[in-house]
């Protein structure tokens, strides 16, 4: 399992070594020991989820207030561009973003730490995205920023397809920053 970090501190990419043969392939998708060696608590991931989306679909940009949410993301089928934005209060890289392709060829698994916005776009016909999260889902802690926010200026590689009402009505990054500052003061 290859482990890669980014210029932006926090996220970690775990890339396994799949075994291909005449039947197809076998790959490990998660290794608790490797995760622990890189500072993650493998026992923390208490909920697994999967979504399926068609070409161009954007889901995001989603975050979580309070203690946030650590997340392991992989694309089990197809290909996506996965995007993270640092919203950790006081972070030297606040507002900076990382984009990385996740697909069913490299089987890479991305760790998204608490304090990040997360979203993705489907690059092929269909993509299945699997997540493991370290806190149970609680919609009252949802944070969201527009996928087309002018300040973030995320470069989505294909024409944007279907989106949820929630994502289409999300506020700006500027509005999120005001919210975070207000919560910090209170
Ligand atoms: C995320 C989530 C949603 N749901 C429900 C709520 C809703 O009825 C339905 C669809 O939810 P959403 O529209 O929020 O799904 P979606 O837009 O796919 O939300 C996901 O987007 C990506 C980018 C992430 O990072 C995830 O953490 C999550 O926020 O599923 C759960 O029951 N548990 C969950 O953990």
TrEMBL record:
Gene3D superfamilies membership: Jelly Rolls (2.60.120.10)
One cellular component (GO) term of this entry: cytosol
Assigned protein family: Belongs to the dTDP-4-dehydrorhamnose 3,5-epimerase family.
Enzyme class: isomerase
Keywords: Isomerase
InterPro entries: RmlC-like, RmlC-like_jellyroll, RmlC_Cupin_sf
Pathway the protein contributes to: Carbohydrate biosynthesis; dTDP-L-rhamnose biosynthesis
Protein name: dTDP-4-dehydrorhamnose 3,5-epimerase
